[in-house]
C-alpha cells in the first residue's frame, strides 16, 4: 500500500490489490463452504435418496412409472430408520411415540412397512427359520415336545422344584436383582427340560453363550471381530458344540437312561413324523438352540415383570393369595391365617391347602382362574416381544397401497396391546379385564397364524407356577419404584429390578 502510493498510482494499485485480495478471500470462502457445507449436504441428500432410488426405482420400472406405495421414508442406506428407532427406544425411552408416528403415516393400519430390517439367522434348520412343509414338520416335533398337554404334564414336575427352591434361596438374600434371579431359575429349568443338564460348569458356560447369542439377535449384521454380531456367532458355535457333545454321548449310550431323562433332546431324537422319518442331528441341535433363544429371555422377563406389577398393584397380589373379600389394607397379616384357607374361594393359598404339600398339576393350574388372568395381563403389558416380522410373498394390495413382493413387514404387537381402542385404560394393570375375551385380533403376545409361538402354553404355565409360589409364601417391595424401563433388546427395568424379598 505504501509502495503504491510512492509510485504515483496509489488509487488503482489499492483498488487492484483490494480486488485481488477480495477475490482471494471469496474463493477461499467458496472452497470452505463447498467442503464443509455443500459436500456434506450433497452426501446427505444422496444418502437420504439412496434407498428411494435403489428400492423404488425398480418398482417404478416394473409398474410402468406409477406405483402407490405406503407413505413413509426408506431412511438411510443399510440402516433404514434404525437411528430414529434407536433414538426413541434407547435414548428417549418412548417406544410408543415412535410407533405412533409410524402409525399416523399409515392411517389406521398400525403396521410399519420399511426398507430391509435386520435379523440374525440363528440356525439354518430350526423351526423359527425354515418355511413351508419343512416348517410344518419341525413345528409339530417341537410343539409335541414342549407345548402339548402331555409334555406340559411332565414339565410341571421338572420346573416346580426349581422355582420353589429358588424362591426360598432368594428370601435368604433379603435384597436381590429380580432380572438376574429370574434368569437363573429359568435357565436352570431350561437346562433340565431340554438336555437334562444340572446346575454346574456346563450350564454356566451355556448361560454365558446364550447371553452372547441373544445380545446379537437384533444387532447389525456386521461380522467383524469386536462386533456384537461376531460375538453372537462365536457363542452360537460354542453352544452348539456343547449340545453336539451331549447328543453324541447319548448316541453312544443309546437306550440307557431314557426313562429318567425324558427331556427335549430325547424327545426330538426319537420323534418320527407321519412318514416315520426322524430328525437329523443338526436339526435336533438347531432346534434346541433356537428354543432356548425363544424361551429363555422371554420367560425370565415375563417372570421378572410379575414381581414388578404385583409390587405396584398389591391388591392384585392379595387377590392371588386369597379371596377378594379379605381386608385389602391388611394384606400381610391376613396371610398368617392360612388355616382359614379351606373356607376361601380363591385362590393360591386355598390350592396349597388342598394339595397338602404335593406339587400342583396342570389341572390344578387350570382351576386357578384369577391366576390365569394375571398371567394374561402380565404378558400383555410386559410386551416382551414388541414386534414381529413377516415377508411379503407376492405383490399385495393393502388399504389402497401396493405392498411389493419381498418387502419386510414389522408388525407392532406392542401397539395392539397399548391402544386404548383395544383395551380400556391400556396402561393400567387390571387382570379383571380378562373376565371376557379380548377383541378379536387385539391380543397377539405370541404372534399369530402358522408361526404363532410354539411355546405359548409352556411360557404361560411357568409364569403361573411362579405366581403360585410367590403368592403363597413371599412378600417383596421395589427398591427403586420409579426406575426407568429400557426397551432394547427387550423391555426391562434399568436397575434390573432391585427388590427386598422376604418370606411371609
Ligand atoms: C412370555 C414368553 C414368550 C413370548 C412373549 C413369546 C413370543 C413369541 C412370538 C411373538 C413369536 C413370533 C410369532 C409369530 O411370528 O407370529 C414366538 C415364536 C416362537 N416361540 Fe415364543 N414366546 C415366549 C416363550 C416361548 C417359549 C417358552 C418357547 C419354547 C421354549 C417359545 C418358542 C417359540 C418358537 C419355537 C417360535 C417360532 C415358531 C414358528 O416360527 O413356528 N416361545 N414367540
UniProtKB/TrEMBL annotation:
Residues 1-18 have a biased composition (Basic and acidic residues). Gene3D superfamilies: Cytochrome P450. Heme binds at residue 453. The keyword Heme applies. Residues 1-20 are annotated as: Disordered. The chain crosses the membrane at residues 29-50. Its cofactor is heme. Signal peptide: none annotated. This is Cytochrome P450. It comes from Papaver somniferum.
Amino acid at each position: 500500500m505504501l509502495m503504491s502510493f510512492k509510485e504515483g498510482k496509489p488509487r488503482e494499485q489499492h483498488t487492484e490489490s483490494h480486488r485481488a485480495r477480495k477475490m482471494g478471500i471469496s474463493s477461499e470462502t467458496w472452497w470452505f463452504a463447498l467442503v464443509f457445507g455443500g459436500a456434506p449436504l450433497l452426501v446427505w441428500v444422496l444418502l437420504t435418496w439412496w434407498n428411494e432410488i435403489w428400492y423404488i426405482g425398480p418398482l417404478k420400472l416394473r409398474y410402468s412409472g406409477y406405483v402407490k406405495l405406503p407413505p413413509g421414508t426408506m431412511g438411510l442406506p443399510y440402516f433404514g430408520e434404525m437411528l430414529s428407532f434407536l433414538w426413541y427406544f434407547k435414548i428417549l425411552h418412548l417406544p410408543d411415540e415412535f410407533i405412533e408416528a409410524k402409525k399416523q403415516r399409515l392411517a389406521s393400519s398400525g403396521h410399519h412397512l420399511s426398507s430391509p430390517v435386520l435379523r440374525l439367522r440363528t440356525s439354518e434348520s430350526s423351526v423359527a427359520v425354515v418355511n413351508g412343509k419343512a416348517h410344518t414338520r419341525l413345528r409339530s416335533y417341537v410343539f409335541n415336545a414342549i407345548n402339548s398337554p402331555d409334555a406340559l404334564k411332565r414339565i410341571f414336575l421338572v420346573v416346580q422344584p426349581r422355582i420353589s427352591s429358588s424362591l426360598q434361596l432368594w428370601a435368604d438374600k433379603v435384597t436381590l436383582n429380580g432380572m438376574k434371579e429370574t434368569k437363573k431359575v429359568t435357565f436352570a429349568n431350561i437346562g433340565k427340560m431340554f438336555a437334562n443338564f444340572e446346575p454346574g460348569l456346563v450350564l454356566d458356560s451355556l448361560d454365558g453363550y446364550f447371553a452372547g447369542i441373544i445380545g446379537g439377535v437384533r444387532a447389525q449384521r456386521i461380522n467383524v471381530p469386536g462386533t456384537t454380531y461376531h460375538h453372537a456367532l462365536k457363542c452360537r458355535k460354542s453352544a452348539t458344540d456343547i449340545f453336539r457333545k451331549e447328543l453324541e454321548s447319548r448316541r453312544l449310550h443309546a437306550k440307557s437312561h431314557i426313562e429318567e431323562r425324558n427331556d427335549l433332546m430325547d424327545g426330538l431324537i426319537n420323534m418320527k413324523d407321519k412318514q416315520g422319518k426322524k430328525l437329523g442331528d443338526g436339526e435336533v441341535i438347531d432346534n434346541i438352540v433356537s428354543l432356548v433363544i425363544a424361551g429363555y429371555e422371554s420367560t425370565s422377563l415375563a417372570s421378572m415383570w410379575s414381581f414388578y406389577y404385583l409390587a405396584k398393584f398389591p391388591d392384585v397380589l392379595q387377590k392371588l393369595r386369597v379371596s377378594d373379600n379379605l381386608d385389602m389394607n391388611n394384606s400381610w397379616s391376613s396371610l398368617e391365617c392360612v388355616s382359614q384357607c379351606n373356607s376361601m374361594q380363591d385362590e393360591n393359598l386355598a390350592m396349597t391347602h388342598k394339595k397338602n404339600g404335593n406339587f400342583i398339576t396342570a389341572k390344578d393350574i387350570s382351576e386357578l382362574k384369577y391366576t390365569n388372568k394375571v398371567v394374561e395381563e402380565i404378558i400383555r403389558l410386559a410386551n416382551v416381544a414388541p414386534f414381529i416380522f413377516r415377508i411379503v410373498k407376492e405383490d399385495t394390495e393393502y388399504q389402497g397401497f401396493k405392498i411389493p413382493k419381498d418387502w419386510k413387514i414389522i408388525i407392532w404387537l406392542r401397539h395392539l396391546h397399548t391402544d386404548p381402542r383395544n383395551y380400556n385404560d391400556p396402561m393400567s394393570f387390571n387382570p379383571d379385564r380378562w373376565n371376557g375375551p379380548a377383541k378379536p385380533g387385539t391380543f397377539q403376545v405370541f404372534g399369530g397364524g402358522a408361526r404363532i409361538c410354539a411355546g405359548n402354553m409352556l411360557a404361560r404355565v411357568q409364569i403361573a407356577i411362579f405366581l403360585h409360589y410367590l403368592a403363597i409364601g413371599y412378600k417383596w417391595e421395589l427398591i427403586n419404584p420409579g426406575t426407568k424401563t429400557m426397551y432394547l433388546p427387550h423391555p426391562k427395568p434399568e436397575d434390573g429390578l432391585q427388590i427386598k424379598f422376604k418370606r411371609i
